[in-house]
Amino acid sequence: MEIQNIQGKQWSARKVDHIYIVSLKNYSNIVEALTDFVQHQNIQAGEVSGIGAVSEATLRFFNFKTKTYADRTFKEQMEVSNISGNVSVINGTSSLHMHITLGREDYTALAGHLLEAKVHGAGEFIFYPLDTKAVKIKDEETGINFYDFEQ
């Protein structure tokens, strides 16, 4: 088993064979920090999952009829019951596509596409990189980035 510890500005990680365990620093922006991580490690395809707590989150909802996005920011302490997503290459850059489920103090939940969230407590993630490059391009019919396996 090969183990390596890695340090970034907003994150620290342990690589165990080909899998990464990643911890974000308190008050880090999740998408910003994890994007820095995947670019630093040159991950071009893979899966990510995580849990933690945040004090603010901006979610996005896609309206298929209008092909427009609605963004909404929630500023309150929330538990991250799940973040899941993938890593791909868009316009030549490693990018993350993540969805999040958040638990509120009153035990209701919020969910959606994660634009950004600020860690307040913990941010714990597991990355499962794939030994390939997964390219996404914008589909003109839907306005959404989809995998293009021809590239």
Automatic annotation (TrEMBL):
Keyword line: DNA-binding
PROSITE patterns listed in its UniProt record: PPC
PPC domain location: 14-150
MF annotations from Gene Ontology: DNA binding
Entry superkingdom: Bacteria
InterPro entries in alphabetical order: DNA_bp_PD1, PPC_dom
UniProt cross-references to SUPFAM superfamilies, sorted A to Z: AF0104/ALDC/Ptd012-like
Pfam families recorded: PCC
CDD domains, sorted: DUF296 (cd11378)
Keyword hit for Lipid metabolism: no
Name of the protein described by the UniProt record: DNA-binding protein
Organism, as annotated: Chryseobacterium bernardetii
